[in-house]
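Is this the right way to post structure tokens for a design question? Let me know if I should format differently. Anyway, here goes:
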């Protein structure tokens, strides 16, 4: 098995932009991390942290300082209010072998592709809404999330994150009696 190469990236706003290398492009080609822009891979904050934790990505700030995982998380939390809740869900789903992409245009946080399916080959199977276990959802909120999933022909997953960062999933679907 080939040795995993540590790819270099720079954090620019809400994106980590990799170096122009084959190893960086493999993030996209093999596992659909980020998107390729001008031969580099642009990673979202969640993807970048995940790859940092897997010892695959070395991130520097715009001023050239190496970022530790802790400093990256601190910065990401300033950019994105619910970063840690979303990251716990992202990490759990990726660790289970699924490809996770954003689902903002669907009105959800993530869309998940079944194992072995890459975006563009088939449609996502689920839309996911990460929530902390202490979050209260009204029936109206729940119905709205279910409607989003139904209208996009996907299953709804509520990903509930507890205080330890563990995730439980609740799937919901519309049925006709």
């Amino acid at each position: 098995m080939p040795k995993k190469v540590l790819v270099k990236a720079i954090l620019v706003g809400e994106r980590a932009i990799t170096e122009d290398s084959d190893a960086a492009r493999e993030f996209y080609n093999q596992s659909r991390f980020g998107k390729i822009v001008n031969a580099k891979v642009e990673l979202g904050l969640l993807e970048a942290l995940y790859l940092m934790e897997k010892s695959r990505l070395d991130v520097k700030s715009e001023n050239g300082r190496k970022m530790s995982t802790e400093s990256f998380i601190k910065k990401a939390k300033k950019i994105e209010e619910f970063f840690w809740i979303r990251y716990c869900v992202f990490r759990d789903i990726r660790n289970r072998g699924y490809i996770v992409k954003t689902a903002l245009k669907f009105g959800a946080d993530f869309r998940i592709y079944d194992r072995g399916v890459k975006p563009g080959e088939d449609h996502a199977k689920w839309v996911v809404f990460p929530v902390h276990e202490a979050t209260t959802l009204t029936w109206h909120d729940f119905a709205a999330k279910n409607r989003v999933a139904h209208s996009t022909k996907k299953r709804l997953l509520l990903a509930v994150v507890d205080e330890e960062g563990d995730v439980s999933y609740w799937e919901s679907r519309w049925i006709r009696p």
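Format looks fine. Someone answered above. Worth noting: The CA atoms of residues 126 and 155 lie 4 Å apart. The chain has two domains: 7-79, 83-172.
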